[in-house]
Amino acid sequence: MRSTTLLALLALVLLYLVAGALVFQALEQPHEQQAQRELGEARDKFLRSHPCVSDQDLGLFIQEVADALGAGANPEVNSSIASNHSAWNLGSAFFFSGTIITTIGYGNAALRTDAGRLFCVFYALVGIPLFGILLAGVGDRLGSSLRRGIGHIEAIFLKWHVPPGLVRILSAVLFLLLGCLLFVLTPMFVFCYMEDWSQLEAIYFIIVTLTTVGFGDYVAGASPNQKSTVYQPLVWFWILLGLAYFASVLTTIGNWLRVVSRRTRAEMGGLTAQAASWTGTVTARVTQRAGPAALPSEKEEKERPPLLPPPPGPAEPRAPESPEKGPPASPPTASALDYPSENLAFIDESSDTQSERSCALPRAPRGRRRNPGPPKKPARPRGPGRPRDQDAAV
Predict the structure, then answer these.
(1) Pick from 89, 333, 390: which is nearest to 231 by CA?
(2) Can you tell me the distance from the alpha carbon of 123 to that of 142, in angstroms, rounded to the nearest whole number?
(3) Which residues belong to any copy of the Potassium channel domain (predicted)?
(4) Which of 87, 162, 254, 285 could bond to 157 as cystine, CB 3.0-4.6 Å?
């Protein structure tokens, strides 16, 4: 990801966080202030009704009650029968272990012993990756089952001659509706019946749980009135299937975004190739038109350092020079499109830059070396009456 894109995304997330903070503050702060005033009024009323209790003793008692509630104690249950309503029975402990490896962490029950906290560290380090593997497998199998069922519905739509694009949209909508029916609406009615929650409270608990936020203000099975030991384990299995469904939805969205990104890159690659081809063609035409002007002039020929003279030897027959002097004829140059290496060089540079460079710099004609190596020794001419062995001896 580019740095500019990353900074833009960071700015968007920070703006989203600030907006959420302002909304939550406006909604929740008046309720908190009202609750604080009511607590102060109740405390003053208790002190007036019981003058033998000091303000300091009452504060210590309230602190002890708050710590006990944080440890999972229930103030409505007597200590003599607390073992039957323990928050750490087998079902509750199983549910608590499930909240650890699913990273939900409601917080309604917390560990108070050092041994329990130390065990929780190693338990989470091993259990979270293990649950991630299980979640991936269950999500894959669940998503395949749902898509297979929706595939039959797609086949029915195709038999009715529905356009394929509309069928894809309908299948995606059905996938979402079926998942919401199985993992959101049906559990909502179950929690409303079992926990005596309102529909809003049940939906709130479901979304907070399946998104692994887990505030802990609403927890299924945490009520003392709930005496079934298998209720919370069943809730954990619902959490497993719900998280798998959400994972399959996110995987489907990720695959769709990957396909869209791949198609976008392919289209951009095609446009880039067309632009490069057009640039190479225009540059080749400009180069062909500027070819005669790019030949070295007489002044440049005079300023060029002379080549080393050939070694002394018998005079070689030279072709008669023409009386008319002029620039040496250059061999016919081929088109720039015949040389792939030059076409590749034109991809990264604009046609204007290439045309200016071709007009400004002298260009040697093809077939002539700009920096030739040392001259070869000319062959000695053989006379008409000279045998081959004499040439060999010489």
Answers:
(1) 89
(2) 27
(3) 86-142, 180-258
(4) 162
The phi-psi region of residue 292 (left if phi > 0; otherwise alpha if psi is between -120 and 50; otherwise beta) is alpha
83-131 pLDDT per residue, tens:
555 668 888 889 999 999 999 988 888 888 899 999 999 999 999 999 9
pLDDT digit string (tens) for 324-367? 444 454 444 444 333 333 333 333 334 444 444 444 444 545 54
Q: Which two three-digit tokens encode residue 37?
A: 């005033």
Burial class (CB in 10 A: 0-12, 13-18, 19+), 192: middle
Token pair belonging to 261: 């990104």
Q: Could you tell me which of 367, 361, 363 has the C-alpha nearest to residue 330?
A: 367
Among the listed residues 97, 100, 78, 96, the one whose alpha carbon sits nearest the alpha carbon of residue 87 = 96
What distance in Å separates the CA atoms of residue 258 and residue 346, rounded to the nearest whole number? 32
Q: Hunting for tokens 């640039």 — which residue is that?
A: 279
Q: How far apart are the first and last CA of the chain?
A: 74
- Within the chain, where are the H helices? 3-49, 55-70, 90-101, 114-159, 164-180, 186-195, 199-210, 231-289, 298-303, 340-345, 351-360, 388-393
Contact 71, 81 (CB under 8 A): no
Question: How many Cβ atoms sit within 10 Å of the Cβ of residue 106?
Answer: 21
**What is the spatial distance between Cα 129 and Cα 224, in angstroms, rounded to a whole number?**
33
